[in-house]
Amino acid sequence: MLCARYFRSYRTVTSEGFEHNFALYYLSRFLLGYGLVDQMEKADDPVIMNVAGPGVGAGSIQWDDLGMEHGYDGWSAMFQGGKLNDLLGVSFAAEHRGYRTRYVLLFPGGTRTGFAGEFDAPTAAYVAEMKRIAQPVEVGIVPIIAIVDTPPREPLSAFAEGRRISLLHPSFDKDAAARLDALTRELLRSSSPRTSRPPLRRRSPYVMPD
Ligand SMILES: NC(=O)c1ccc[n+]([C@@H]2O[C@H](COP(=O)([O-])OP(=O)(O)OC[C@H]3O[C@@H](n4cnc5c(N)ncnc54)[C@H](OP(=O)(O)O)[C@@H]3O)[C@@H](O)[C@H]2O)c1
């Protein structure tokens, strides 16, 4: 279950130099999925449930500035994260990887969760209103549990607000997915965490199967 996110009205960078939304909402899901896939492949019916934003029209990927150094705003960063996760699902489920583990992308619709984040005043007001009209977690969780219990047979599937959606959409473009995958692996290879690490972890912590 991949769900972590944290909304930021103001741009923040991790100690590794990654913009915070990019790191938490996308990169952590990339690392967890590929980092745990060998263990998951041994399970009876393995599935990764990536709760994000498939089927959401808003947002685009700033290919030349994934960390949004220029013109950052919290909503664009969040919506970009959703698009990146769509492409992550496409790459993970690509035929050449040959995983048994199914990948599910799911947009739950407005749900009255914690809405973790640091908000400027207008965003805080908007989030309060969203929480007021959103569905309760007890409702939003039902399709998620059903899908995890009985995952679709296909390597990749996508759901929005309880309905399966087509993968024949630019959000799931295979070339864009391959581009992002290559870019991500290059970023991870070239990143050098500034924090000191114990001797046993001197190797890059980001080593994972291709
Ligand atoms: N709620 C909605 O209306 C809605 C709509 C569309 C899509 N989604 C998607 O659903 C997913 C879950 O959203 P949500 O509404 O459940 O969000 P949420 O209530 O804000 O919860 C986010 C979770 O992320 C964790 N988290 C935050 N920063 C973290 C960090 N640095 N490291 C590890 N974990 C961290 C939080 O942990 P702590 O509780 O420990 O702080 C919290 O459990 C997200 O991917 C979101 O994009 C939600």
Poorly predicted spans: 194-205
The average pLDDT score comes to 91
Q: Which fold name is given in CATH as the topology?
A: Rossmann fold
**What is the rounded Rg?**
17 Å
The rough form would be described as: globular
The CATH class label is: Alpha Beta
Tell me what the structure shows.
The protein is an alpha/beta fold and 210 residues long. The chain has a single domain, classed as NAD(P)-binding Rossmann-like Domain (Rossmann fold, 3-Layer(aba) Sandwich), CATH 3.40.50. It contains five helices and six strands, in the order βαβαββααββα. The chain has helices spanning 20-40, 74-92, 121-133, 137-149, 174-190, and strands spanning 7-8, 47-51, 102-107, 117-118, 156-160, 163-165. The strands form two sheets. Strands 2-3-5-6 form a four-stranded mixed sheet, sandwiched between helices. The chain has a two-stranded parallel sheet with strand order 1-4. Strand 2 (47-51), helix 2 (74-92) and strand 3 (102-107) form a beta-alpha-beta unit. The chain is globular. The protein starts with 6 loop residues before the first strand and ends in a 20-residue tail after the last helix. Residues 194-205 have low confidence and may be disordered.
